[in-house]
């Protein structure tokens, strides 16, 4: 039975989104779909059993019921790393092959999710390239736009994998870069034999996070308008400037959390009256009573954090770029983005479906 490996040029590139989107689309079209993630880098415990966090979540979304040791035969715990770096990891591919045989049995197609980049796991010989070769899979490599695309990397993947590379997906492309992608980079890649299966546009919702989750990730706490902590934050704006300048920027970034010092009540009030999704007050400084009252009346949550404004901004940048796909609305949106953006017919043909 055919199998497809979903890898990427780096971590947090959208592998789970593509795995779920593709898996749900194939299921909708009547195919029996298997799923595994050979190497799990996010160990957790579910129901008293060791799982990879992402693999557990994806399997549930696809409605599958396989055993954790079959879904993720290699779980990267601290003990595993100690053994692996000491040269005591053994023949891990044997276990992966056995697990793949179990998962793929009786299915029309098996979707195999990668971990990290295509080279992650090389230290114990379970990197994406080795998995693709050993299991006889076709590969799709995702490259997420982060200031630029890694087109050289994608061309190296073609040289390395040859016909096993079914194609690449360019993900999270901002509108300002779309013309360059379509006019220059896609033709360049395809001249080099790299099939571009799809270009997924940047969608603010996919990087959004709930206020309650944001507070937890920042190590802070929500102190007001608790009933609105499920509001969604798509971006952030730092309120360290003068009020007049802040108002100009704020009008252009309405769905942004405002990061501001706890002593800047002038900026806080402007942000509240402008109905920002939330205020993040830094330095562990609580707002005055006027700000707290307006927050409750306008139903805008306030989050208090200990760190300084610069540190919080850096954390926010990381959180919004790496936030996991967990909310139902984001899963639906991600699946829609995948199904509408990739050349599904070409991929099915390449897989022999």
Automatic annotation (TrEMBL):
The organism's taxonomic lineage, starting at the top: Bacteria, Pseudomonadati, Thermodesulfobacteriota, Desulfovibrionia, Desulfovibrionales
Record protein name field: DRTGG domain-containing protein
Annotated DRTGG domain residues: 213-317
Binding partners and assembly: Homohexamer.
Pfam families: AAA_26, DRTGG
CDD domains: DTBS (cd03109)
